Amino acid sequence: MEDLFVKEEIKELREQITHHNQLYYEKSEPEISDYEYDQLVKRLQELESKYPQYKINKTPTEKIGSDLVPEAKIIPHKVRMYSLDNAYSLEEVQSFLGKIAEKTGRFPEVSLEHKIDGFSINLFYDKGTLVYATTRGDGFEGEVVTNNVKTIKSIPQRIKYKNPIEVRGEIYLPIKEFERINKEREDKGEKLFANPRNAAAGTIKVKDSSIVAHRNLSSVIYSVGFLENEKIQSQKQLLDFLKDNNFKIDEYTEFASDFEKIVKYCNFWEKSRSELEVDIDGIVIKMNDFALQKELGFTAKSPKWAMAYKFKAEEKQTKLLDVIYQVGRTGAVTPVAVLKPVYISGSTVSRATLHNEDEIKRLDLRIGDEVKVIKSGEIIPKILSVDLSKRKDKFPEIVFPKECPVCGTTLKKEEDGAITYCNNINCPAQIQGKIQHFASREAVDIEGLGEALVKQLLEHNLIRKIEDIYNIDFEQVKQFDKQAEKSVENLKVAIEKSKEQKFHKILFGLGIRFVGAKTSKILTRYFSNIDEMINATIEDFLDIEEIGEKIAYSLFDFFRNEESLNTIRKLQEAGLNFTSEKIEQENLLNGRKFLVTGTLVHFKRNEIKEEIEKFGGKVISAVSKNLDYLIVGENPGSKVKKAEKIGTVKIISEDDFLKMVEK
């Protein structure tokens, strides 16, 4: 039983880490701090170490996040780009350096450099000319952003050094520029950037280089990838070389050969960072000697000769004025604290997320409380604690709503979880996001049905639900501002074409909680059509190898909701396909359920799974009364005894299975 819970936790951690990687690297919209992210990775590393049987080849603990997006033009790096390990205390830094001192016999000389909160860049020069610029990408290859980088004044397009060289650093947005841009966006009614890092990351991939030039990005260069120059033997020599070639380097860099100086430098800049023109979120500590760097080497994702000491989040005290409730696209109801405005880490904060009902209870919050607020990871305002000494008896308790604050549907708290949901698929608070999700490329792919147009359609009451997409009055759409007749005709074609999408993409488009694109494919391989899913029990969902309890309960609830079922029926009437592709050559196995135990002779596990599905069978995850056949190979496990106890399970050999699918 313990193994089952561990396997489920490992799977959930992988999904969370992948999700947060996408938000941070691809969308520049992180939801959690670096510390919270690192704790997820650390926990996964611990479990993979203790239970190696559940570790996969492409585990997120051994690869860096990727900023690559589909259809981007990419170029391989000549030398791989790594990410740094983080330390959140000086004790961790001391331990890191102590191990190196023990290995080498002396305390190492290190460089101390500001950790710029920006966007990693790789620049390749040949014959003294900038040939291309790429993002870090996945560490092995990056997206080409050359034209945009050429608008950055601090990056030279020509240098003195004539041999091939990869130069690396950070692109950032100066704080004053960030404030200016956000003021302009506010005046235009546009969405504000959350912080300078997000703004820089978003800007570097903008297609219009004139927009990039207007935003006045800057840079700091601090390392190289490919470089064949034996004269450069240390970080100090490298920085001198970079400066001599007109690259902007960190002017505050210092070198230290004792821990006391490192502590003094880190403490000084933790207190004084607000005086800089750029956001820094820590100090990078590197071995100065390149020979020592080479000796220490790398882990799967980080150098063993460098570490980032991350600053603690800045804290301020202010007053809790109110709590309001927001309903997201998935129906999650999130309480938000309304605060007396307070300035923290480069911006004025007037709201903070409270995450869920349990968080309100944990903090014992009351309206009127004096609260301590931090900007978690310099991103998300968060209430840390309550100053109980300033509480007055009259302060009212906060009561979490029982009904959706927008549509009035009775709210439901997830099984064994903390999140409260509105399960109305047509809740007005959710519908814009749900429609955009349904129309997205990963779902039914309706090109042209983006955020701006969906908003207009809702404002003009042309759509109120997902299914209304297929009854749009295009003549009225032509009357919208900025809607050319050709664009409307293209939209009409795209909507009609979306009816041809495969079942798994339509299922993903419905926005069922916890059901991503991969899970949708798994479900549509297992179930022949939507009616089988609608009539499935929780146990039926749990029989599927890759489906855990959280997903099973979410699916069961979704298909018991009248609004969800009505949307599905309307989409079917519109002509959308809710039937799985028939990949089987012949329906010989007729939906019977199989499980494999032991080592097979003719197949690998994934191969026999494909073979079972090809002939109309299904593979489930555990021995249960639903199992029809247990295929037994060499050295089988305890599954055989469990199957024998049930009595109805047929225990067969690999050869028996092959006879079943013979024509």
What does this entry show, briefly?
α16 packs across α17. The chain is globular.
Describe this structure in words.
With 663 residues, the chain is of the alpha+beta class. The chain has five domains: 2-62, Helix Hairpins (Orthogonal Bundle); 74-310, 2-Layer Sandwich (D-amino Acid Aminotransferase, Chain A, domain 1); 315-413, OB fold (Dihydrolipoamide Acetyltransferase, E2P) (Beta Barrel); 427-581, Orthogonal Bundle (DNA polymerase, domain 1); 593-660, BRCT domain (Rossmann fold, 3-Layer(aba) Sandwich), CATH 3.40.50.10190. Helices cover 36% and strands 20% of the residues. The chain contains 24 helices and 22 strands. Helix 12 (428-439) packs across helix 13 (451-459). The protein is globular and about 75 Å long. The protein starts with a helix and ends with a helix. The model has no long low-confidence stretch (mean pLDDT 87).
Overall number of structural domains? 5
Query: Low-confidence parts, pLDDT < 50 over ≥5 residues?
Result: none
**Helix fraction bin:** 25-40%
How would you describe the oligomerization state of the chains in this entry?
A: single chain
State the major sheet.
Answer: 7 strands, antiparallel
Provide mean pLDDT, rounded: 87
Shape: globular
Instruction: Please report which band the strand proportion falls in: under 5%, 5-15%, 15-25%, 25-35%, 35-45% or over 45%.
Output: 15-25%
